[in-house]
Design a protein that fits this description.
Bound molecules: adenosine monophosphate
Structural class: alpha/beta
Strand content: 5-15%
Oligomer: single chain
Number of strands: 8
Length: about 220
């Protein structure tokens, strides 16, 4: 199963992808997570990407494409993948088409996760991440879950932190960037007949079930 999840920051793409990964046994390839990891490790790519990320701007296409190609070619992605955060604009989508063509495979679906803007703001401002194990929490919505009672990680007891770019000013910039650059992708994939809309407010299990059913060629409920 080869799928792409589209939606503004905070739509739940990461949460859905982690569920699908477990259910289908395919890797979750999240460009933002990989880039943050590269920054943390201080690699060449990380050094180049850092300033763009701190400003809430997109990292140049060539850098991200090279990084994604490496993941898509890895043996674990042979049976499929869930792309999350990539492609982010039309040039990246065209690059992906070309790449997959070259591998003789195609996408089973591109899923646009729909969530109202006010809900996104509420979700993002409540997001917390464990510094130790990376588990994700939300102090407002409890999705995927609430932190432990003492405010620490329920998995490992680690300290939770808020992402630099989950502050209101950067959230707004990322929204604008999403609308300007990513929304045209919706037309791009609709024209190719592989776009599906998914309601992102009906709970994680419902959305995940629907995505898997549609990706396998099933009918909409
Ligand atoms: P995310 O975790 O998806 O919100 O991504 C965090 C940041 O990483 C973004 O604000 C961008 O600076 C960068 N980034 C992630 N994915 C891409 C991409 N496909 N193209 C360019 N920049 C990206």
């Amino acid at each position: 199963m080869r799928i792409v999840l589209l939606g503004p920051p905070g739509a739940g793409k990461g949460t859905y992808a982690e569920r699908i990964k477990v259910l289908e046994g395919i890797p979750h390839i999240a460009s933002g997570d990989i880039l943050r990891e590269e920054v943390k490790k201080g690699t060449e790519l990380g050094k180049k990407a850092q300033a763009y990320m701190e400003r809430g701007e997109l990292v140049p296409d060539e850098l991200v494409e090279e990084m994604i190609a490496e993941r898509l070619k890895s043996p674990e992605a042979e049976r499929g993948f869930i792309l999350d955060g990539f492609p982010r604009n039309i040039p990246q989508a065209e690059w992906l088409d070309k790449f997959l063509n070259g591998e003789g495979v195609k996408l089973d679906g591109v899923f646009q996760i729909l969530v109202p803007e006010e809900e996104i703001v509420r979700r993002l401002s409540g997001r917390r991440i464990c510094r130790q194990c990376g588990a994700i929490y939300n102090i407002h919505t409890g999705i995927p879950r609430f932190p432990r009672e003492d405010g620490r990680c329920a998995e490992c007891g680690g300290e939770l932190y808020q992402r630099e770019d989950d502050n209101p000013e950067v959230i707004r910039r990322r929204f604008k960037e999403y609308e300007e650059q990513t929304a045209p992708l919706i037309d791009y994939y609709r024209k190719r007949g592989c776009l599906f809309e998914v309601n992102g407010t009906r709970g994680v299990e419902n959305a995940v079930e629907e995505i898997i059913r549609l990706a396998k060629g099933g009918e909409r409920e």
